[in-house]
Fold this sequence. Notes:
This protein has 309 residues and is mainly beta. It has helices at 97-100, 114-120, 146-149, 241-244, 259-265, and strands at residues 36-38, 46-48, 59-64, 76-86, 93-96, 104-107, 128-133, 152-162, 180-182, 191-193, 205-210, 222-231, 237-240, 248-251, 273-278, 299-308. The strands form four sheets. Strands 3, 4, 5, 6, 7 and 8 form a six-stranded antiparallel β-sheet that branches.
Amino acid sequence: xRRLALLAAVPLLFATxxxxxxxxxxxxxxxxxxxxxxxxxxxxxxxxxxAGDPPVVSSSKVLKEGQGTEVKNGDQVxxxxxxxxxxxxxxxxxxxxxxxxxxxxxxxxxTLPDVVRKGFEGRKPGSRFYTVVAKDALPPQATPDADAxxxxxxxxxxxxxxxxxxxxxxxxxxxxxxxxxxxxxxxKPPTLTTKTEKKAPAKLVAExxxxxxGPPVKSGDSILVHYTGKIWGSGDTFxxxxxxxxxxxxxxxxxxxxxxxxxxxxxxxxxxxxxxxxPPDLGYGKAGxxxxxxxxxxxxxxxxxxxxx
Length: 309
């Protein structure tokens, strides 16, 4: 997929379970007698279900504990998630980020079912856990159909790590003439100004204005970014993950996004903020991307590279 505007984060798979906050749910060793999860961490798991109807009480179990900093409530977590529908009959896979090709960004807060949120809390990068989200986790206002009310959902989660919400560090002034960047700091987005009479650069500009302290991005990585995109000479924003309130994950350096991103972000240390000025031939080409981008437009992005996986 070459058109950045078409990229989106992997759909929030947890919405398939309850669609909101939940009532309390049990957790602990009882889950181990209900389903068996096999397969290596980092690969799509398989689940073997016992005979009979699915449970009506939710549960959770840690299958492997990782290393590093523990996940806490409020964190932004990157994880691979596979969801199974437990109906006592077909018991099949409903969705998996391993099939989608990218992990998922999950905000750990009270909008998740309690059993899922508590499954995340305390986990470390490299962990695998599963939760059985049963009827007791449905919010009081939920009115599922008869078939859905008899089902449970099994979430097998591989935790890759947590990520900041913005680049952190001392910000330098943008040296690209005609572009202005303001850095409010914290979890607030940078302000990008591109309304100028100056001529756009003819070649790709990739200017690091905050240098992160993480490992450099490699070709083939899935990177988590927050960004704002504008057209040179215009004050209008044509795309912004900040405005949507959710960073996105995508594979870099392999032709999945526009060439300016592939060429400008590989090698950048994670945690960095990068200003990209992308000429038309490295953006959307002569065809542009209607209705906002013409084939002659130079694109300007400010990109926070939050993590690479």
